[in-house]
Design a protein that fits this description.
Oligomer: heterodimer
Order of helices and strands of chain A: EEEEEEEEEEE
Number of strands of chain B: 11
Distance between the termini of chain B: 38 Å
Number of strands of chain A: 11
Helix content of chain A: under 10%
Largest sheet of chain A: 6 strands, mixed
Radius of gyration of chain B: 13 Å
Number of helices of chain B: 0
Structural class of chain A: mainly beta
Largest interface: A-B, 21 and 22 residues
Radius of gyration of chain A: 13 Å
Distance between the termini of chain A: 41 Å
Chain lengths: 112, 111
């Protein structure tokens, strides 16, 4: 069964600190993995997208890594800001059809 | 540039009433279109997707339906709403890349 798991479920950090969010998946055959940021009551916004051949992708203070062998990805946030408070969603796509598997998300709260 | 619109932004409807949510995309042609639902505190659930006018695929059985009357218009409907239909409904489009772009969403509360 195609699944995406994320950990932790929620995370609280202080402004300026770094944090790392985890994503494990069992989607096969793997096509790509995306990380989204979703502010409360808004639609998700894409942060990074990685295909099988990519093992790291950066977008400003966000850096995503992918280990296709272990089927794990991480999203590292550097020097967190209050505006980073949001849910971060990992999405894995399979090659066939429109098989997008969404993780449950990690709720990040950045406190001053 | 491409933009995606959804309306209404919020909606409160009684059980048993009909539903129509609209999504339109600007600045692109022949996009793949998607409807998702997000229950409170939960992940996104794919409801329908469309690869072209009149072509609709359903991912989960429910009392909802979707239609694509025009290339850049996607409509989500129901004849009779259930309490369990409450949630945050998101429309998304995908072009020639892997990226999906989401609309602002519609918050539906069924009372």
């Amino acid at each position: 069964k195609n699944q995406v798991e994320q950990s932790p479920q929620s995370l609280i950090i202080l402004e300026g600190k770094n944090c790392t969010l985890q994503c494990n998946y069992t989607v096969s055959p793997f096509s790509n993995l995306r990380w989204y940021k979703q502010d409360t009551g808004r639609g998700p916004v894409s942060l990074t997208i990685m295909t099988f051949s990519e093992n790291t992708k950066s977008n400003g203070r966000y850096t995503a890594t992918l280990d296709a062998d272990t089927k794990q990805s991480s999203l590292h946030i550097t020097a967190s800001q209050l505006s980073d408070s949001a849910s971060y969603i990992c999405v894995v796509s399979a090659f066939h059809g429109q098989n997008f598997v969404f993780g449950p998300g990690t709720r990040l709260s950045v406190l001053p | 540039s491409q933009t995606i619109h959804q309306w209404p932004a919020t909606l409160v409807q009684p059980v048993g009433s009909p539903l129509s949510l609209e999504c339109t995309v600007e600045g692109t042609s022949n996009p793949n279109l998607y409807w998702y639902r997000q229950a409170a505190g939960r992940g996104l659930q794919l409801l329908f997707y469309s690869v072209g006018i009149g072509q609709i695929s359903s991912e989960v059985p429910q009392n909802l339906s979707a239609s694509r009357p025009q290339d850049r218009q996607f409509i989500l409907s129901s004849k009779k709403l259930l309490l369990s239909d409450s949630g945050f409904y998101l429309c998304a489009w995908q072009g020639t890349t892997y990226e999906q772009y989401f609309g602002p969403g519609t918050r539906l509360t069924v009372t």
